Amino acid sequence: MPDDYVTATFMPSGAKTEALMGANLIKAALEAGIEVDAVCGGKGACGKCRAKIIKGAVSETTASEAEHLTTEELKNGYVLLCQRKALGDVVIETQPERARLDNHAPAKGKLMDAALEVAPPVAKTYHQLARPAINDQVADLDRVLSRLPGEKRADVKLVTRLPALLREAGYCVTSVVLEDELLSLEKGNTVSEMYGIAFDVGTTSVAGYLADLAGGKVLASLASANRQRAHGADVVSRITYTMEDDNGLAELQRLIAQTIDEIVSGLLSRSGVPAERVYTLTFIGNTVMSHLLLGVSPVGVASAPFVPAFSRSLQGTAADLGLKSLPAYTRFVLLPNVAGYVGSDTVGVILATRIYDLPGTWLAVDIGTNGEIVLASGGRLLTCSTAAGPAFEGASISQGMRAEPGAIYQVRMENDVELAVIGGTKPVGICGSGLIDAVSEIARIGLVKSSGRIKDPRDLPPGFPASLMRRIKQDGNSYKFVLAEGEREVAITQSDINKLQLGKGAVRAGIEILLNELNLQPSDLDGILLAGAFGSNLRPASLKGIGMLPEVSLDRVKSVGNAAGTGAILALLSKRQLETVLALPERIEHVELSLHGGFQRAFARGLSFKVENHVKQ
Ligand code: FES
């Protein structure tokens, strides 16, 4: 190895990479295939890329490390990977890689009823062809095509396989046809083996659903963290990366293809379905993810007038996406987007919930790093998108973490704090649902002012439970509320509350503006549908408690699971559903909040908390 190269080894996996002397450690980690939560995209602002130097020389401590790590941690070798450079061979301990693939359930029950109509665009037919003879010299390709209805074409790659395939199969073959193309020809009768995969490509995670196209059943579903997270938690960081790094766009496309390949491999190995029997894919995602999936620059979406490179549905092959886990002939359909920040995931929610057919006035809210809102009333369908920010998913929170073992996911407060922790372990951080619960409870017991400011304990009313009072600790110029005490303290800081406020204020403002557009009041709502793998796991009472949802009775709030993913499955299983989803954007009226005169006022109103004090005195 030349002198100007160093080896970076990452423990506990032992993954290694060779990097140029002076290479940034976060880049080296990515090269070695280590997943890093680079929420701020490597800018030193989030403190999430922490790791420990076990051996070797690295560059000096930076100011942002001093801000995010304690003196003790720095002394013990902890660093922020994005802040350090390798100055020699180095061994680094990172967080143990969590299992990349999680079992993942799409929406169940009523949303999937439409899937009973199974009529995919792919057709398979078994043929017992006549063998060639001196008086039957029809060419191999014509021999096959003549048995198919209408005019069909075949790719040259298929034709190259044809002579051997027909003869080995004794002229007994199954044709696979999609629209006017003979996609594949298989030996023997394989008519019952017909599969497709629907994908929901999220900024944070990607979910895949393997479906039996003949039987109309989802056989397996898996979710995985989007590997693009290494370049920031939200779409803005990803767009910035494509602008600042010449190779950024290609790298993000490669990472999403890698994530999809991992999901496909997991689905196939769990179900025993061979890759060559997967013929179609459907993709939904937000507009930026749709662009990055195809390797198309999303830069136009970054600033006003927020013009995407495309909105309509696009089609292509697995090879066009650089997928290695599927045959090149597998076809994909990327469902249509509506606007720069209202993507096909929202269109999927609309299809799956059939919100346009529900009697009365309905709201659907899909909460993630972006909050997409749909309002259906009187035959009209309005949508908008709000920058909810990564706080809802725990990403930009001081002790925020993914929903994995050690994460506080439920919080209750009466005379003291009651916590539920994933895996039943000691708490090490808090995930999005825990944060929303905690802040809702903090507001409910009157620990914050309506501005969101944590109260000085001296301002609390007499009789306020001492067990809660002692959890309020000075934190710089403000206070924090300690949820878990001990060696690993987990607390909600003033900054955490402020970040959540920005997200919930934006969603609440979006809801208010859509209602105003149709001269409606919250009391006119017949129901609210909470969509999204994340959103539907949140307690409606807590969402109402932080003031994100308007004042409606809780029995009118329903969780519908990952409705966007369900929309992608419906479009995969049924040609008619696919046609419906392709036509939906024409019916949808998009309301651009950034240009809306009432947004700032609605946002300011949405920031405040309704403060009560229900603690037993
Ligand atoms: S501080 Fe390193 S990625 Fe955010």
For this entry, give a set of tags.
Ubiquitin-like (UB roll); seven-stranded mixed β-sheet; Nucleotidyltransferase, domain 5; 27% helix; alpha/beta; 28 strands; six-stranded mixed β-sheet; 617 residues; binds FE2/S2 (inorganic) cluster
Write structural notes for this entry.
This protein has 617 residues and is an alpha/beta fold. Among the domains are: 89 residues, Ubiquitin-like (UB roll), CATH 3.10.20; 67 residues, Ubiquitin-like (UB roll), CATH 3.10.20; 140 residues, Domain of unknown function (DUF4445) (Nucleotidyltransferase, domain 5), CATH 3.30.420. Helix content is 27%, strand content 26%. A hairpin with a 3-residue loop joins strand 1 and strand 2. Helix 6 crosses helix 7. The longest helix is centred in the middle third of the chain and has 24 residues. The N and C termini lie far apart (71 Å). The mean pLDDT is 89. Bound molecules: FE2/S2 (inorganic) cluster.
